[in-house]
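Hello forum,

I keep getting stuck at the same step: I have a sequence, I want structure tokens, and every attempt I make locally crashes halfway through. Rather than fight my setup again tonight, could one of you with a working pipeline run this one for me? It's a single chain of 220 residues.
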Amino acid sequence: MSSAKTFCVMAIAVPLAALAQTTVSAEEGWFVRAYGGISELSDIDGDAIGIDGLDGKADIALDTGFNAGIGAGYRFGNNWAAELAWEFRSNDNVAELPSGALYDDGNYASSTLFLNGYYHLARSGSWDPYVGAGLGWLQEVDIDLEDASGELSYSGDGDIGFQVFGGVNYHFNEAWAANAEIRYSMFSDLDLEGESDAPGELQSLDYEPLTIQFGVRYAF
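Reply #2:
Ran it on my machine without issues. Output:
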């Protein structure tokens, strides 16, 4: 994990965990939410195998992207809640292969299912802070390498990862709330195979998004 990501994760966990000594008033029931935000990915390198005649490292530079998702869950009659969420994420990329071939366009994208657990901290009026963690299953992850001659696409699925997060709900009333959150996810050593006529494969890719996101929540 990079030092910047380590700092962000600690910035979530340390001050909010200190508040967890107090309890919140009991709330219970189903909720749904929709969210979207800014997705940051560190530049990565992976192993390019059989793509352009040479095996070696592929250097992939990634731009700021976006994510969007929906979730549904249940708030138990205490501090805890559970949620099943689905999200789509996309970041543009520039890739250089071992031969020196440069693909100056493309994107690194995914659709992911998450099973999340929430711990709600001491509520203060309309403000309802929380921390949490979850397991993720990559429904699909795909990287496209594009240049003037066309596009090469590589994809995979089924990998398992995790995420940690912290945020706050602002309740307008008993049903509706706005939400702000910071989230770090990690999937490691992804192997992506060529689609259609794309030769070879990309191996040992990491996928570690850091996200700042906003949403709306409705409780039943």
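The chain has a mean pLDDT of 88. If your local run keeps crashing, start a new thread with the error log.
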